[in-house]
Design goal:
alpha/beta, 8-stranded mixed β-sheet, globular, binds 3-acetylpyridine adenine dinucleotide
Length: 873
């Protein structure tokens, strides 16, 4: 008789990992009444705090914040002994949590999960453990941590060393006694910086091999911060809630002090206060712009370097310890206790691998390009295959046999950092695309776990079985993640945030940098929009609400939020004079835009009087004439002037190398249609006739304009063609108003909330032109004959009511055989691309505009005497 096949174990959910996230996940799943099995290869709970037992290991977020908040009684029963608790104390805490909620009964320790496969017909995951055991489950949750897979040392000869070798990330439980030993430590990240001072206390000789000097500030460890304790006492719930909606998971008020605007005294005062406070979120918040503006960042970086020089006695060692080559904060900064002071000890030496790289590790030491060192012990503090290592290393196979490793070959792709298409019912806690390592992990973990638990409950309540993100939603989140990073200095660094520490790993910014509160809001919005971006299925049911949860550029969204919070009166409710005053007031404190070589004001004679103009000449070589761009400001034919678009004109001038002549045409309602259009044409004729005097190259004349300015620029091109000149070589139309039909879908989609509203557009038209005139091509150039017009670059912004008419103009020009470049300002509004040095994500769009301008101008003929030095793209 055959032995009956063993019945596989079956549970509702399998969780891998029994650290902070796995423990809380188990607690929440149990609350839902689900059966759960947790596996961990460790011998007990603790996750990262189980493994990273190296001397000096502590957390670098104050422990009063780095703590669970889901259980108020737990909070009362546990008191942290220090501001930054040690690894043994944090491990003890997690054991205490496990005991208190009797979590261990559902956890199998010393059991690795070696594979997980989605069984589509059964709609189950099949989990294989180290011993070949199979467990089936509906939901598979990886709570494997972001920094759990050690990076291999990737140093020539590493396997040859005969003495003991230790990894900070897998430290022996019994500890290590370095007394009397010659010790090498390789790596100066957080683990190295924390362990080096303690290893130095025991070792007879300590040599630190540093490849990249790291920014570190003193932790000033001691009792838990009195102010935090006071706030917790006064209102624990309010404090925890503030953390949940904060930027980094600790309630820190973001500063609005800009480094450039602050006096030297204020700068030093702010820096010193943060230095004395000894908290990462403090030193990262000295100036509002230090994470995005290189000059601001350098002010903080240099002040840290000053501190290092003041601490380390030997000037050469001090200089080698001064971080250079990456912006402060773009690699994880460290908190230390006596790190730099350690290099003043006579038996401690620093080897700068930038000057003297390791050639090989030998049987009894390390050979660098300049020296041979003998060691008894080597300690590797060389870091982790961060954020993706544990996930792709776990042999996870989703639908159609696709493995996670294959899917992520070019970099991770997730929706909300929680799920990934093709892997139904597979959840990642603190996955790539979540705030995780950029935040207080405890706060982020609770949010992730609560979201997953809510999701599973919702599925069950609705009788559904599977959930999986749509491709559109996932692509949108990946884009949003990269957009958030792109406005910061982070992508410039070779950090583990970028995957740059592991040879061959795709270079992608891994965590979500938009902030804990913003992330929480996005996750909540997904739920309130009926799980936007997810497909959910059940017996006979498929529910899919497809869409992208965040498509506005993050800095645009921030400015919109700020502007909307000001509660300014809608412009269309004001008189033209008051609207102009309001516009001028809102522009008062904005950045001035880049320096250019020369700015001069003048007037253009027209039959009825004069038009003011402002000329911008680029700085630097080449000397001599440049192509000429006649620019018309925005403002709905009613608002705007030479000042309103000054930063944008400077930017266009500096980027394109052309002379820009900004023209103030006459405004409605004082002077109505077609005055503005005729003024524009007159200005172009004048510029053409006076090209040489303006420093232009005759025959190299383009027009440009924004909004209503783009309207009159487009009309000027049509009038010039009809009049047989002047010859215009190109037209740059930024978010142009080209039609008086306000019924296109973008007026509906973007008609409210993004500064230029549909109502305001109506107000502009009413001021400018009688209804009977609005079909005239000089008012609505889209309705004109477009054949024979100059090549165009049209910028259309996603969140602009005018988006669709811009696109329509591009299509119509194309149909009329006019060369057109349509630049989609992705995630932008009508105004945001023009906000120079305010909206960082607008810079690439303006670079495209400048490139289009350069393309309009033919390369200078070397033999032409008129333009021997012409700027050529
Ligand atoms: O690892 P790391 P870590 N030859 O990657 C160097 C968290 N954490 O374990 O920068 C020579 O930061 C490498 O040099 P380089 C925290 O988020 C938190 O220290 O690549 N050197 C670098 O100096 C932290 O950021 C806490 O040029 C080599 C070091 O090794 C993260 O974990 C404590 C090398 C690795 O630094 C990782 O920290 C500890 C080679 N082949 C960790 N390969 C707290 O809560 C690498 N390096 C306080």
């Amino acid at each position: 008789m055959n032995k009956p096949a063993s019945v596989p174990e079956q549970v509702d959910a399998v969780v891998v990992g029994a650290g902070f996230s796995g423990l809380y996940m188990l607690y929440r799943l149990r609350q839902l009444g689900l059966s759960v099995k947790v596996f961990d290869s460790a011998g007990d709970v603790g996750g990262t705090w189980y493994w990273n037992r190296y001397p000096g290991a502590r957390c670098d977020v104050p422990t009063t914040d780095y703590t669970f908040s889901f259980d108020p009684e737990l909070e009362k029963e546990w008191t942290w002994s220090e501001k930054y608790a040690t690894q043994p104390e944090i491990l003890e805490y997690l054991r205490f949590v496990a005991d208190r909620h009797e979590l261990r009964s559902d956890i199998e320790f010393s059991t690795a999960v070696t594979a997980a496969r989605w069984d589509e017909p059964a709609k189950q995951w099949v989990i294989t453990t180290g011993g070949g055991r199979e467990v089936r489950c509906r939901h598979y949750i990886m709570a494997t941590g972001c920094l759990s897979v050690a990076k291999s040392p990737d140093i020539e000869g590493a396997e040859r060393f005969a003495g003991p070798v230790y990894f900070t990330s897998r430290w022996p439980h019994e500890g290590v006694d370095f007394t009397g030993q010659r010790v090498a430590v390789i790596g100066t990240g957080s683990s190295g910086i924390q362990s080096i001072p303690l290893i130095a206390r025991q070792a007879s000789q300590l040599t630190v091999f540093q490849r990249t000097a790291n920014f570190s500030i003193p932790a000033h460890n001691g009792p838990a911060p009195a102010e935090t304790l006071r706030q917790l006492d006064e209102g624990r719930d309010a404090y925890r809630d503030a953390a949940r909606w904060s930027r980094g998971g600790v309630p820190v008020e973001p500063t609005d002090v800009l480094a450039g605007a602050a006096s030297e005294e204020v700068r030093r005062e702010r820096f010193e206060a943060a230095w004395q406070q000894g908290e990462l979120f403090g030193i990262l918040n000295v100036f509002a712009d230090q994470g995005v503006n290189p000059a601001a960042n350098d002010i903080v970086a240099e002040m840290i370097r000053e501190k290092i020089r003041a601490t380390v006695n030997d000037p050469e060692t001090a200089e080698a310890l001064c971080p250079r080559g990456h912006y402060f904060g773009t690699k994880r900064p460290c908190l230390d206790t006596g790190y730099f002071e350690t290099f003043n000890l006579p038996h401690v030496r620093l080897v700068d691998l930038r000057k003297e790289p390791i050639v090989s590790i030998t049987e009894d030491g390390i050979e660098t390009a300049g020296e041979s060192f003998g060691f008894d012990t080597i300690v590797y503090a060389t870091g982790f295959d961060a954020m993706t290592g544990a996930l792709v290393g776990a042999d996870v196979t989703g639908r159609d046999g696709l493995s996670l490793k294959e899917k992520w070959a070019a970099g991770p792709s997730t929706y909300l950092g929680l799920m990934t298409t093709g892997f139904p019912n597979f959840f990642m806690l603190t996955g790539p695309g979540s705030p995780s390592v950029l935040s207080n992990m405890a706060v982020s973990i609770e949010q992730h776990v609560d979201w997953v638990a809510g999701c599973l409950k919702d599925l069950r309540d609705k009788g559904l079985e599977t959930i999986e993100p749509t491709e559109l939603a996932e692509a949108g989140w990946n884009q949003h993640n990269q957009d958030c990073a792109a406005i910061t200095l982070h992508p410039t660094a070779n950090s583990w945030y970028m995957g740059a520490n592991v040879p061959g790993k795709p270079r992608v910014f891994l965590p979500y940098i938009g902030g804990v509160g913003a992330y929480r809001q996005a996750c909540d919005d997904v739920v309130t929009q009926d799980y936007l971006g997810f497909t959910r299925t059940g017996p006979g049911a498929v529910r899919c609400t497809d869409g992208v949860i965040r498509s506005m550029q993050p800095d645009v969204a921030m400015v919109m939020e700020f502007v909307n919070a000001l509660g300014l009166p809608p412009m269309e409710t004001l008189s033209a004079a008051d609207a102009r005053a309001l516009m001028a007031a809102t522009a008062e404190n904005r950045p001035p835009g880049p320096e250019v070589g020369e700015v001069t004001d003048g007037v253009i004679p027209i039959p009825d009087g004069t038009l003011p103009y402002r000329l911008y000449r680029p700085a630097g070589p080449p000397e001599g004439p440049r192509p000429l761009v006649v620019y018309f400001h925005g403002g709905g034919w009613v608002l705007g002037n030479l000042d309103s678009d000054d930063p944008l004109c400077r930017d266009l001038c500096a980027r394109s190398g052309a002379v820009v002549v900004s023209v103030n045409y006459r405004h409605a309602p004082e002077v109505r249609f077609p005055a503005a259009a005729l003024d524009a044409f007159a200005a172009v004729q004048w510029a053409d006739a006076n090209a040489i005097e303006l420093g232009g190259i005759p025959g190299q004349l383009a027009v440009a304009g924004w909004s209503a300015g783009a309207n009159v620029a487009a009309v000027a091109c049509q009038l010039a063609r009809d009049a047989g000149g002047p010859r215009i070589t190109g037209q740059l139309l930024i978010c142009p108003a080209v039609d008086s039909d306000l019924t296109r879908p973008s007026y509906e989609e973007n008609g409210d909330g993004y500064i230029l509203t549909t109502a305001l557009m109506r107000w502009f038209w009413d001021h400018y032109a009688d209804p009977a005139d609005r079909g005239d091509p000089r008012a609505a150039p889209l309705r004109g004959d477009l054949a024979g017009l100059p090549p165009a670059c049209i910028v259309a912004a996603d969140f602009d009511p005018l988006r669709d008419e811009g696109v329509a103009y591009a299509r119509a020009l194309e149909a009329a055989a006019v060369p057109v470049r349509l630049t989609r300002a992705r995630g932008h509004t009508h105004t945001s691309v023009t906000m120079v040095d305010v909206i960082i994500s607008g810079a690439p769009v303006r670079a495209e505009m400048a490139a289009a301008l350069e393309d309009f101008f033919p390369a200078a003929e070397p033999q032409s005497s008129a333009a021997p030095q012409a700027h050529v793209s």
